[in-house]
Amino acid sequence: MQVAETVADSFPTRARWPALICIVAGLGFVFDVYEIVVQPILLRPVLLDLGGLDPGTPAFNRWAGWLLFFPPATGGLFGLLGGYLTDRYGRQRVLVFSIVLYGAAAVAAGFATTLPELLAWRCVALIGVCVEFVAAIAWIAELFPERKRREAALGYTQAMSALGGFLVAAAYYAAVTYGESFPAIRGEHDAWRYTYMFGALPAIPVMLARPFLPESPVWRAKKEAGTLRRPSVGALFAPALRRTTLVTALLAACTVALTTGGIQHVVRLVPSLPQVADLPAREQEQMVSLIQLLLDFGQLAGRLAFALLAVTLIRRTTLLRGSQWLALVAYPLVLLVPGTSSFEGLMLGAFVLSALVSAQLSFWGNYLPRAYPTHLRGTGESFAANVGGRILGTSAALATTQLANAMPGATPTLKLAAAAALVTGAVCAIGLVASRDLPEPEREGLDE
Fold it and tell me: In total, how many domains does the chain have?
């Protein structure tokens, strides 16, 4: 290890730190999204293979809700602890550990033989995802004291996360189309098993790069000087930070709810569309992959649009409210009209919905580091992203899947579309009201 550190120290600091850290963090973002997006697209084949459940039945919807809610909610609980550990022990160490953790869990999920076993490994994978996001955001933000460079670094590394969705679509399409030629897993060639296991890939380059990854210079300087105060969740509710903590948690929940209550169910609508329903099973799953691809293009467009606007606009909250107004109209409209009648219309609608929510997700990655001082940066980000987003926000998955059992409609697809439209419309309205109280950080630099 000493040899590796000596070699790392031989590289010029300015050239080594930003590029290497942004690459590793960006790779983490890519597979963070992979682990989140992979579940909705694999939901149907997993519940058919491991549970023998019929789509649209109460048992199917119950397990769908559990698989979409409990992993990110569990990740949120442990992610809050990860935020504390990030502030206590450093950004680099926690980030590397979290990526290795969800890589190992991805492999284990591919070998699952029962739904409870799969659920357990998915919970472990999302713990790694939730911890990694907080550590990476704090790490990148502290590299760049200048506002424009910091906004660009955060914006464009988060834009890399869109590649995670593309990888899901590509991996699943390849597994469905060519899975018979892959090595058997548990004696079978199930496409969903290969797709889960592909999520383990980032652990390999991260472990190779680990000896050359320096710690955050801001965090390390304070640690070595003995001026780094011990992080505390209670400090987030001190008078100076209470409003920021509560409003960001609520708004992060609304943003994530658009994903878990709406976006994740778009692919579930595809097999019942008139242009798809009569196709063979393999072709239906290929059409699902195509819609997922459009969701991925939308995510990339939303991330890039935000990255470009964030470096030119001083008030980032204006971007948030603009996307909220558009989402209030677009989500119910797309889910209720093309989501129940037109494959071609749903392709365009999926792109738009994904772009709008991705812009909001990028907003939080840029906003949260500026809202908290160094010793609370990871803890504050973690509270908003995990308690707000992963726990409160992902409860929208349960709301949509359970409301689908009670909504009016002649078919399970119509009921699901109506439930998703109701949930997303409600969270958009709540977000618009709450965003009026979101404070704009007064300083352009990071609060020390």
Answer: 1
Q: Which two tokens stand for residue 134?
A: 């907080």
Contacts of 447 (CB under 8 A, 6+ apart): 370, 372, 373, 374, 441
The backbone region for 90, taken as left when phi is positive above 0, alpha when psi lies in -120 to 50, beta otherwise, is left
Ramachandran area for residue 52 (φ above 0: left; ψ -120 to 50: alpha; else beta) = left
Q: Give phi and psi for 50, each to the nearest 5.
A: -85, -30
221 in a structural domain? no
Give residue 317's domain range.
17-213+238-437
Q: What are phi and psi of 322, to 5 degrees?
A: -65, -45
For tokens 């994530």, the residue is 256
Residue 1 domain flag: no
Q: How far apart are CA 217 and CA 255, in angstroms?
A: 31
Nearest 10 degrees: CA dihedral of 412, 417, 420, 424? -170
- For the chain, the C-alpha Rg in angstroms (whole number) is 21
Closest CA to 265 of 407, 107, 119: 407
Q: Is residue 3 part of a domain?
A: no
β-partners of residue 98 are none
Write out the two tokens for 324. 């909220």
Q: Are 101 and 127 in contact (CB under 8 A)?
A: yes
The secondary structure of residue 211, as a DSSP letter, is: G
Q: Is residue 224 part of a domain?
A: no
Query: Residue 412 and residue 261: Cα distance in Å, rounded?
Result: 16
Query: Structure tokens of 200?
Result: 């383990």
- CATH value at residue 262: 1.20.1250.20
Question: How do residues 173-201 score in pLDDT, each as one tens digit?
Answer: 889 889 888 999 988 889 999 999 988 87
Question: Number of helices (H) and strands (E), helices first, in the chain?
Answer: 19, 0
d(CA 447, CA 253) in angstroms, rounded, equals 24
Q: Which helix (H) or strand (E) holds 102?
A: helix 91-110
Q: Which residues are CB-contacts of 66 (< 8 A; sequence separation ≥ 6)?
A: 119
Distance CA 113, CA 177 (A): 23
- 367's tokens: 């906003």
**Using one digit for the tens of pLDDT, what is the confidence trace for 333-390?**
999 999 999 999 999 999 999 999 998 988 887 788 778 886 677 778 778 888 888 8
The span from the CA of 209 to the CA of 160, in Å, is 18
